[in-house]
Design a protein that fits this description.
Elements (H helix, E strand, L loop, with lengths): L8 H12 L3 E5 L1 H5 L19 H4 L2 H6 L1 H17 L4 H12 L3 E5 L5 H5 L4 E3 L2 E8 L29 E5 L8 H13 L2 E5 L11 H7 L3 E6 L11 E5 L2 H16 L1
Parallel strand pairs: 1-2, 1-6, 2-3, 6-7, 7-8
Antiparallel strand pairs: 4-5
Helix pairs in contact: 1-10, 6-10, 8-9
């Protein structure tokens, strides 16, 4: 991949759009976290887990059939997440949030790295792997007061005794309606939409940048691979990784705004 050219004409277009923007929306995907050493969802199927497909474990049905197996897989993934640190791409998005009047970040990642980096207006579309919730009533914030394990070895909810489960969206489950609605609203109402580290191939999040484009926003796609990205006059591709492109972009924005 060639070095990112911060002086390229398309970068000038992005900077002009960001300087004029009062409302920015950001969508991030697995590519942002991969640069922190967190394997993508399917890359994580290695070692003892290589004989499984993610779709075999990340479902309510799998948890009902083999709760300890699913719990242990997510425990291993959670440990990897907690051992990772935010990278330069995460840090650049924190700076962007502090630069523009309004910036809302929607992430498909479940690792919480945006929050740990310092981003404030973060909406997790797929949940947070570092949290657990009751499998019966969806209550949050029970991690500090887990009940004893049930007969399968899975911790139970201190309120009702049902099994705890990872606070993530599994296959076959809907995204949180309020978060999804806010994502739609921001896509329709923003001036600039940044799609970072995602192929934009998995719905419903995949539609968000194109909703923004149809509403007239400048859409900026930051990704090493543009295979699945749409083309339009107001869609600007910046080929590269989040940790390379975003810091250079925000540095130049800060310089030109000072």
């Amino acid at each position: 991949m060639p070095p990112f050219d911060v002086d390229a004409p398309e970068v000038a277009r992005v900077l002009a759009a960001l300087r004029a923007a009062t409302r920015v929306a950001v969508l991030t995907g697995a590519g942002v976290s991969a640069e922190s050493g967190i394997p993508t969802f399917r890359d994580a199927m290695s070692g003892l887990w290589a004989r499984f497909r993610p779709e075999e474990l990340a479902t309510p049905e799998a948890f009902a059939r083999q709760p300890k197996l699913v719990w242990d897989w997510y425990a291993e993934r959670r440990a990897a997440v907690l051992a990772a640190a935010p990278n330069a791409g995460h840090a650049a998005l924190v700076r962007l949030e502090r630069t523009v009047p309004r910036c809302t970040l929607f992430t498909q990642n479940v690792d919480g790295l945006h929050q740990r980096a310092g981003s404030v207006r973060v909406r997790a579309l797929h949940g947070d792997i570092t949290r657990v919730r009751c499998s019966r009533d969806a209550a949050h914030d029970v991690g500090a007061t887990w009940g004893p394990a049930d007969a399968t070895g899975v911790p139970t909810c201190p309120r009702c005794g049902a099994r705890l489960r990872p606070d993530v969206v599994w296959f076959g489950e809907a995204l949180p309606p309020s978060v999804l609605q806010e994502a739609w609203d921001e896509a329709e109402g923003c001036d600039v939409y940044l799609s970072v580290g995602t192929s934009n191939a998995v719905e419903p999040a995949a539609s968000l940048p194109w909703i923004a484009a149809e509403a007239g926003a400048t859409v900026v796609v930051v990704n090493p691979d543009m295979t699945w990205q749409r083309r339009a006059p107001n869609v600007i591709p910046l080929v590269g990784t989040a940790a390379t492109v975003l810091p250079a972009l925000v540095d130049r924005l800060a310089t030109s705004s000072s």
